[in-house]
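Re: folding output
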Amino acid sequence: MTSAGPAISVLTPSYNAGDYLIEAVRSALTQMRDDDELLIQDGGSTDGSIEKVLAEFQGYPQLKIVSEPDGGQADALNRALARATNPVMGWLNADDLLHPGALDAVRQAWVLHPDVQVVFGSWYIFAADGKKLRHKVPTTFEPLSLLWRPTVFSGAIFAKTGAVRDVGGFDSSLYFVMDGDLWMRLSQLRSAVQVDETLAGFRWYTGSKTGGMDVALLREGWVYRRRYADGVRGKFLSYVAFVGDCLWFLAVPLRKAAWYSNWRLRRAALKSPKPRS
């Protein structure tokens, strides 16, 4: 692990996450320095997940758990944000993973670019059983780009803790798109750098918010886009993007099919450069 770069606070909202939580905690703690912290904000889980984490990770002073009723994921994140003591924060959901070396990559980015407010990178999507399905590379972290399609992942973006607080933290009125809403406000700072490294893994399964794909997600997406759609171009993009969301919603059963992921993997393999003999 590198000794250079800022200390990092990782925020993890959790509620009845089962064994996924242990995997998430392990992925973070095993790459943390002594001055980092993993702030679990638990909503009062009844599935024994917190007790398992406490038993599994005794002796890790970076692990700091608060278990209390909250108003949902965004409220839990705001509570964890209020507890954060380090200059940089990241967000790791209880069913996702930090990729090995992610925190060092983030630190190094701030060593090279000490004045930026946001660092972001790529991520991979994996199934409930751990099988990697595909790799995702973000586009630019610009307002219009995010309005069109917020192709950044919460686990693969880190920000100055003060900047997140200054723009208002997480909107607790949102259930699905509190991430995109925060990214829009941070993007308006025009102070971000992209790293080449993979930073996180997103677990895709039916029981997750995105995997379940409720119609309410479409409704919130519309509210979020209209909130930031300035000018003719922005409003046009918001309408077109909403139509795209509706089509994406209709295609969810296709995207969950095993043959679709296998086809994507075969296609990616064919596009990969072949080793020279």
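--- second protein (sequence, then structure) ---
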Amino acid sequence: MASIGHVIVGMAAARFSREGRPTTWTPFGAGVLWSGLSLLPDADVFGFRLGVHYEDTWGHRGATHSLAFALGVALVALAACARSARSRLPEKTTVANRACGAERLVVAKAARLPALRTALITLVVVSSHSLLDTLTDGGLGCALLWPFSDERFFAPWTPLPVAPIGRAFLSSEGLRVAAVELIAFSPVLVYAVWPVLARLRWKRVT
């Protein structure tokens, strides 16, 4: 699958993670973060330059496309958010700044990333990459059950065209795949960008 669908999933996760919650993240920053997590399993393509073959355990759609890998990333997110929460705890305050310090603490607690919720969204976003790749009609399947099995899996239904890898994507076939994904993920894209569109519409009215 091309990167377009995965990026759109990341954009949707950015909106969902911020929905109705105070945060210090900008929409753009959140979009970049979650899209990066959505694309993370494809870091295995750098193995080609190191002599790793497609069908190897650490080859493309291998270990990094497993559910265990997604769980590992989610646990890292859980630990990072928990550590961030602890770092926001206030130190001893004087009588003069106690009220101000309490106010800052309330704001910090409201704006921080909820650890468990963020970890769960991370798990869904990273694992969605592999599950979506199983819907493609070419290449090898995904090693969903690694490290227990290196077997590659496809979904029973494979409606998405497989994307050419590397520079081959810059071709008419790559453009066709990108167009198909853009159409297929258009409802998710609308959900992701709707708040931005609504703000632009409101500015035009006012």
